[in-house]
Design a protein that fits this description.
This protein is mainly alpha-helical. The protein contains six helices and two strands; from the N terminus they run ααααααββ.
């Protein structure tokens, strides 16, 4: 006996049509609208900053700040600064997940400590250089051949009698 299909061809077409519309809607929704399972309006404030291909970015930021607070911050902020603000919020949230006590302040203080260590090493090296320069200057100065030497008896020696200077002989 021939069995009737569960769905007629017309029902199948309607189902596939709705499925494709739903699929198009989910691919154009931002990560925020996907998270809350709602339709993404064309003027969604979150869409440019939380794309649908990076949902972890929103979930990380949402965990610490909340969607409502993020939306308020973005609305109050000038448009040209919003992308940097979202990146900053994401970085701060990731740091807070890695280090729940200090967050990004821990990283900043660690970098500040490294700067102080480098500055002290630089100061030590500069002190050593100046010490070596002072020791070199304190060593017996050698007269240059262009300056005439004054003898203890007041006579001027022009270096012509020097046996090591062979240009004259």
């Amino acid at each position: 006996m021939f069995r009737k299909p569960y769905l007629s061809l017309d029902c199948f077409k309607i189902f596939m049509n709705r499925f494709h519309k739903l699929d198009k809607m989910t691919s154009t929704r931002c990560a925020v609208c996907k998270y809350f399972r709602r339709r993404c309006p064309p003027d969604c404030i979150f869409a440019p900053y939380f794309p649908n291909n990076d949902p972890q970015k929103f979930t990380c930021v949402h965990r610490f700040y909340g969607a409502s607070n993020i939306g308020k911050m973005l609305e109050e902020m000038p448009v040209h600064l919003r992308a940097d603000a979202v990146d900053s919020l994401y970085y701060e949230a990731k740091c807070r997940i890695q280090d729940p006590v200090y967050g990004c302040v821990g990283i900043i203080s660690s970098l500040h400590q490294q700067i102080q260590i480098a500055q002290s090493q630089l100061a030590k090296a500069q002190a050593e250089l100046s010490f070596l320069d002072a020791n070199l200057a304190a060593a017996e100065p050698t007269p240059s051949h262009s300056e005439p030497l004054v003898q203890p008896n007041g006579a001027v020696d022009h270096g012509l009698d020097d046996p090591l200077n062979t240009w004259f002989y």
